[in-house]
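User: Can you help me understand a structure? I only have the sequence.
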Amino acid sequence: MEMREYIEAIAESCRKLIISKPATKQEEYRKIIVQKKETFFQMEKYTDKQVFHENLSVEELETALEELMQNHFRQLNGFDIEAEHILLVSKKGVPSYKKKKLQNAVNETATHNRKKNYLLEEGKVIPPLVDMGIFTAEGKIVRTMYDKFKQINRFVEIIDDYVKDCKKEKLHIIDFGCGKSYLTFIMYYYFTEVRKIPVEIVGLDLKKDVIEKCNQAAKKYGYDTLHFELGDINGYKAPFPVDIVVSLHACDTATDFALYNAISWDAEMIFSVPCCQHELNEQMESEKLHLMTRYGIIKERFAALTTDAIRANLLECCGYKSQVLEFVDLSHTPKNLLIRARKAKISKEHKQKLLKEVDAMCEEFQLKPLLYGLLQVDEGRNTDAFRTGK
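Assistant: Let's start by predicting it. Here is the structure, written out as tokens:
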């Protein structure tokens, strides 16, 4: 195996890392300790007299470890709940790896420390998590899937923050662009089994085979009020008054149609993880701030952030209190943003202020966001700000 492969395997499974044996006496740090936190890794770098701290994502950690082990240190010890992983690097830079099983007492302590008050409890058989390979048939977390288990719980926590005080006897939910619907099934379980709130959920997607498989799975789990339909987000007619709209990874302007539908239906809550924000990237030009559009990768990221900032502002203009949160999806990809919005009383003055911010951004970069255009022609009661804000 290559150095990178060893490091990826250790970083993904271990809760604690110790980097030691500096390659030369001139190295700045004597040792480095890495601890895994809820959503990041904390690196403690020790000199003879000081300790420096740095927070890293899993991707940043893997890159940092590779550089440290190739150029600065000779030994890396990683600890998961069952074993110690040891990576040694020879003076010629050749890596070697071995794994030692930990004593039972250490295992029990690690298991106790990791057990937190998750909304999805370990020890309970949750059928979708079993089928996803995250739980065993007995409801135990598969050791290598612990990170995914935490990510799913984080998603549920984001919803729970808004739903836990809900007074409604039943909730009606539309999930746009549901795909394979892993999180849709988890949502259903959370509402019905954890919060004991009856729900009716419709998942919508464009792929016929995916819809068929999801309906089969819902039937298998006994999720009687969860069903999936083949259809397009644009122009979709909801079969019931909608309380919550969920849109996870609806590509490019599909997210805009999902948000527009949520606003049009006067949905109480919106949870959206946008994806592939190409629309504004193709429009974006500025003479004054050409710095932000000169370099392709910077323009791409800036366009994505601009897209979601505009969406969050427009939601507030339509009577929603918006938040943009960090959200890591189920694969080890770069961090995504999640837009969370809930109906609220927002003053006319605040709406107009936020709309002026959107107008200024659009004017500077020659932008015509789809969601803005949809709302400008809407005659509904949610869009007063668009007629009086300028």
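Now, to help you interpret it: The radius of gyration is 24 Å. The longest strand covers residues 244-251. Let me know which part you'd like to focus on.
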